[in-house]
Automatic annotation (TrEMBL):
One of its GO terms (molecular function) is ATP binding. SMART domains: AAA (SM00382), REC (SM00448). Gene3D superfamilies: 1.10.8.60, 3.40.50.2300, Homeodomain-like, P-loop containing nucleotide triphosphate hydrolases. Residues 5-119 form the Response regulatory domain. The modification 4-aspartylphosphate is found at residue 54. One of its GO terms (biological process) is regulation of nitrogen utilization. PANTHER family: DNA-BINDING TRANSCRIPTIONAL REGULATOR NTRC, TRANSCRIPTIONAL REGULATORY PROTEIN. The gene is ntrC. Keywords: Activator, ATP-binding, Cytoplasm, DNA-binding, Nitrogen fixation, Nucleotide-binding, Phosphoprotein, Repressor, Transcription, Transcription regulation, Two-component regulatory system. InterPro entries: AAA+_ATPase, AAA_lid_NorR, CheY-like_superfamily, Homeodomain-like_sf, HTH_Fis, P-loop_NTPase, Sig_transdc_resp-reg_receiver, Sigma_54_int. Residues 476-497 are annotated as: Disordered. This is DNA-binding transcriptional regulator NtrC. The keyword Transmembrane does not apply.
Length: 497
């Protein structure tokens, strides 16, 4: 990790030399300034962890400097040093926002202790700010024992000592921000801020201001300088959610930050240097967006250094009982009631649902159950209406509801196919593609023939094939029959000729 930076501002050359020597020996990165104006100009594009400044100097005095620093960097600790240790100076220092007042002459160990205390203070503030970023009710714990989630855990573990850029992809509601939080929490940057920004939630004309900040007077209403998320996340992690929704122009600016580690505030002319780890996330196919010209290819390669895929909930259904128990317990605690308990038949039923909203939908369902269900135990019929595909039927053998996939099959056939494949593999069957591919082709061919009332030329067009390809497939699949439509098609061909 980088060393803590200290600025010393004093017109006394000997004092600057002593402080620089002492702090460098303690491992600090020290920069000296003879007068405050130079430090203020430097502050536009760089910032230390702590500033020590004399109170009486030529040009801008220490209290005026302190006031200007507090306007632009309110949390930056400033220690006021002075040889004129009168009550008025001390009171003015604290009223203006000084972290501490240090009268000269002082013991060098006292100055060192104050600087260390200031660094602890700023680290604590940054940790508190990182906590505020997440919802108060949001847990940063990732739950799951499924093989798919174990892969995610392993990836987070491998990256625990890294500052490398990470791209997280997965459907909405799968927990991409939780994974980003975990990457930060288990990284060398854990003591610094975690700042999250959702590209899809911000109007396009405000994204650059949110990311990079703006200077005073940059546009109408910009009455003060504003720090963007990059500056807020300095030293820590910036999580850019729904990166696929970032405007093309902003992508260009982001690419420059990733390449150079610096940017310009909106309306600014002085570069601002930052040390930020980028974790990006999307539910979209970025490769497709690149091919369509909607996402920069060079930015895609910059972001896609390490990719973590978060599985949809339907693909980790074995985690549903554990997740539901966790969400029910948390909802009960939030509302001050005993947590609900899912009956075995209820969890069995829930494990076979598609959950298009993924973990977020499951969490909302558990909160709904906590509020709406009067009994302690939750039966399948207690579930929200949107989860009951058809009226529940009891199986005579198991007394469990027989879930219907009547509606699921229309919109989530790929999940049914996945369940079919998993079952075949569990049964020890091999070469399942040889089984599935003919079934798949038969199904689509039959659908096309039904749609065209048996007209094979038209059916081939719907399938994206030529007429000869369809004829060959019909023979290969044993679907070849009397060509009822051949005569009609022949007549149509003659008339077209």
């Amino acid at each position: 990790m980088s060393r803590n930076k200290i600025w010393v501002i004093d017109d006394d050359r000997a004092m600057r030399w002593v402080l620089e020597k002492t702090f460098k020996e303690e491992g600090f990165d020290v920069t000296n300034f003879e007068e405050a104006q130079t430090a203020l100009e430097r502050l536009h594009h760089d910032a230390p962890d702590v500033i020590l400044t004399d109170i009486r100097m030529p040009g801008i005095d220490g209290l005026t400097f302190l006031s200007k620093v507090k306007n632009s960097h309110p949390d930056l600790p400033v220690i006021i040093m002075t040889a004129h240790s009168d009550l008025e100076s001390a009171v003015s220092s604290y009223q203006t926002g000084a972290f501490e007042y240090l009268p000269k002459p002082f013991d060098i160990d006292e100055a060192l202790a104050l600087v260390n205390r200031a660094i602890l203070h700023i680290n604590k503030l940054q940790q508190q700010e990182a906590t505020k970023t997440a919802s108060p009710l949001q847990s940063t714990e990732i739950i799951g024992e499924s093989p798919a989630m174990q892969e995610v855990f392993r990836a987070i573990g491998r990256l625990s000592q890294s500052h490398i850029t990470v791209l997280i992809n997965g459907e909405s509601g799968t927990g991409k921000e939780l994974v980003a939080h975990a990457l930060h929490k288990h990284s060398p940057r854990r003591a610094k801020p975690f700042i999250a920004l959702n590209m899809a939630a911000i109007p396009k004309d405000l994204i650059e201001t949110e990311l990079f900040g703006h200077e005073k007077g940059a546009f109408t209403g910009a009455n003060t300088q504003h720090q963007g998320r990059f500056e807020q996340a300095n030293g820590g992690t910036l999580f850019l959610d729904e990166i696929g929704d970032m405007p093309f122009e902003t992508q260009t600016r982001l690419l420059r930050v990733l390449a150079d580690g610096e940017f310009y505030r909106v309306g600014g002319h002085i570069p601002v240097k930052v040390d930020v780890r980028i974790v990006a996330a999307t539910h979209q196919d970025l490769e497709k967006l690149v091919n369509e010209g909607r996402f920069r290819e060079d930015l895609y390669h910059r972001l896609n250094v390490i990719r973590i895929h978060i599985p949809k909930l339907a693909h980790r259904s074995e985690d549903i009982p554990m997740l539901a128990q966790h969400f029910l317990a948390r909802a009960g605690k939030e509302l001050g009631v005993s947590p609900k308990i899912l009956r075995t038949e209820t969890t069995d039923y829930m494990q076979q649902l598609p959950w298009p909203g993924n973990v977020r939908q499951l969490e909302n369902t558990c909160r709904w159950l906590t509020v709406m269900i009067t009994g302690r135990e939750v039966y399948p019929e207690d579930l929200p209406s949107e989860l009951k595909q058809v009226p529940l039927q009891k199986s005579s053998e198991t007394s469990q509801p027989a879930p219907s996939f009547e509606r699921i099959s229309l919109h989530h056939w790929d999940e049914l196919l996945s369940q079919w494949a998993i079952q075949k593999l569990k049964n020890g069957e091999m070469k399942i593609l040889d089984i599935a591919t003919p079934m798949f082709e038969r199904t689509l061919i039959n659908a096309a023939l039904q749609q065209t009332r048996g007209r094979k030329r038209h059916a081939a067009e719907l399938l994206g094939w030529g007429r000869n390809t369809l004829t060959r497939k019909l023979k290969e699949l044993g679907m070849d029959s009397a060509d009822d439509d051949d005569e009609d098609e022949h007549k149509a061909t003659l008339s077209e000729a």
